[in-house]
């Protein structure tokens, strides 16, 4: 009898396991969710009403012989509600060259949109729609400086026109640089492996709390489709720029009170003469640079001679115009900066008070 006891115990264990497996298989799938699934669902339900679909069309003449314009689709993308006043944030390249913009909310209602302000250098734009406040659910803006490589992020957008699509990934890298529409570098960009495809542009990148941490802006892919490398403008940059676009229509980057040599000529000096820095073409009359003795180009009996070439601002190296603009955009009018220049073989320093940019 004792010989059969181990076999009996084995059969009993197998029977119990089968019963447990059947119980698990019969568990109600609607109530069973992993912690990660629950978070994804919660974030989507919370944030998706804020995500909008943007269509861009423009007027063109149908033929050389016809003066009647025809509206044709220019492109589409994503965006999100910024406030209940009807402000919508998206990428500048989504609305570029548009004659007409339409914003479609999650409930299917479509609204004509006007451009409030744009910043091509950061690929951001703000639109406004005249929709009732109860239809508009803004996103909560998070702190992108708290992101770490490996943290989960969620993208919601309209890839290929498929509305309110969710993709999940992680922060793959931080501090990346990409080119904007204006060819200026956008710094501190977030890299993610969350699938981002054409149509996701302008949509939000969210953290696990459903807070905005980035605006999806580009993919790196030879095929033009997601290859696991997407980029988003950090929310801290967005939070700084959007209020200025709403108030002024453009970013209020202060100025030094100088004019720069046009890029094509500056590039000649860099390549042919080895100039490293930003060439001052002229100083504005009555401005701080003129008062402290900064000089632009000057005419000599040998031709045009260089004046000051800016090489640093507050010990931050300035190599080209992009560096100069990046150095100024984090400062305000009235700030005093130390500008280092090279004039012939002499190194000079000036204390310059920044001026407010002129709003047209």
Quick description:
The protein has 360 residues and is an alpha+beta fold.
Description of the structure:
By secondary structure, the chain is α+β, with helices and mostly antiparallel strands. It folds into three domains: 83 residues, Trypsin-like serine proteases (Thrombin, subunit H, Beta Barrel); 105 residues, Thrombin, subunit H (Beta Barrel); 96 residues, Pdz3 Domain (Roll). It contains seven helices and 20 strands. The strands form four sheets. The protein has a six-stranded antiparallel β-barrel. The protein is elongated. The termini are far apart. The relative contact order is 0.10.
Query: CATH first level of the largest domain: which class?
Result: Mainly Beta
> How many DSSP E strands?
20
Into how many domains do the coordinates divide? 3
Largest sheet report? 6 strands, antiparallel, barrel
Q: Tell me the β content.
A: 35-45%
Name the helix and strand elements from N-terminus to C-terminus, one letter apiece: HHEEEHEEEEEEEEEHEHEHEEEEHEE
Are there runs of 5+ residues with pLDDT below 50, and where? 68-72
Q: Give average pLDDT, whole number.
A: 86
**Would you identify the CATH architecture of the largest domain?**
Beta Barrel
Instruction: Tell me the distance between the termini.
Output: 101 Å
**CATH topology group of the largest domain:** Thrombin, subunit H
CA-based shape: elongated
Rg over CA atoms: 28 Å
Q: Helix share of residues?
A: 10-25%
Strand order of the largest sheet: 1-2-3-6-5-4
């Amino acid at each position: 009898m004792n010989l059969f006891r181990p076999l009996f115990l084995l059969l009993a264990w197998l029977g119990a396991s089968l019963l447990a497996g059947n119980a698990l298989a019969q568990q109600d799938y609607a109530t069973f969710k992993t912690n990660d699934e629950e978070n994804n669902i919660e974030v989507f339900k919370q944030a998706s009403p804020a995500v909008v679909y943007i269509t861009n069309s423009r007027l063109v003449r149908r033929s050389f012989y016809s003066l009647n314009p025809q509206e044709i689709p220019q492109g589409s993308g994503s965006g999100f509600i910024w406030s209940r006043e009807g402000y919508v944030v998206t990428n500048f390249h989504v609305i570029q060259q548009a004659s007409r913009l339409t914003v479609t909310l999650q409930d299917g209602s479509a609204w004509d949109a006007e451009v409030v302000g744009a910043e091509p250098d950061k690929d951001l734009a703000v639109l406004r729609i005249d929709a009732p406040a109860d239809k508009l659910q803004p996103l909560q803006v998070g702190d992108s400086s708290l992101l770490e490589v490996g943290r989960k992020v969620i993208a919601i957008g309209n890839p290929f026109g498929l509305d309110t699509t969710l993709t999940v990934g992680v922060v793959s890298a931080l501090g990346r640089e990409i080119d904007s529409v204006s060819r200026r570098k956008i710094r501190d960009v977030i890299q993610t492996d969350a699938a981002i495809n054409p149509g996701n542009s302008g949509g939000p990148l969210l953290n696990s709390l459903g807070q905005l941490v980035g605006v999806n802006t580009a993919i790196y892919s030879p095929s033009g489709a997601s290859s696991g490398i997407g980029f988003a403008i950090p929310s801290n940059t967005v939070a700084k720029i959007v209020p200025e676009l709403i108030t002024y229509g453009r970013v209020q980057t202060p100025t030094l009170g100088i004019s720069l040599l046009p890029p094509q000529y500056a590039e000649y000096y860099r390549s042919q003469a080895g100039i490293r820095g930003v060439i001052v073409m002229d100083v504005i009359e009555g401005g701080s640079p003129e008062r402290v003795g900064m000089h632009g180009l000057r005419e000599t009996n040998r031709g045009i001679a260089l004046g000051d070439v800016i090489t640093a601002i507050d010990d931050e190296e300035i190599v080209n115009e992009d560096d100069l603009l990046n150095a100024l955009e984090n400062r305000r009018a009235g700030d005093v900066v130390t500008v280092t220049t090279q004039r012939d073989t002499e190194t000079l320093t000036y204390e310059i008070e920044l001026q407010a940019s002129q709003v047209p």
